[in-house]
Automatic annotation (TrEMBL):
The lineage of its organism: Bacteria, Bacillati, Actinomycetota, Actinomycetes, Mycobacteriales. It comes from the Bacteria. This is Uncharacterized protein. InterPro entries: DUF6131. Pfam families: DUF6131.
Amino acid sequence: MIILGIILLIVGIVVGIPILTTIGIILLVVGAILMLLGAVGRPVGGRRFYY
């Protein structure tokens, strides 16, 4: 999810489409939160790891 967020963020900036940039930022933040919760050992949605 983090990688997809980075890709959408870069494509949105290069092409100039603001909705892609916004979606990229949202995916990046959500992916980082899930990664941090998984790293501390707290299962989210029944899954301990999201990779």
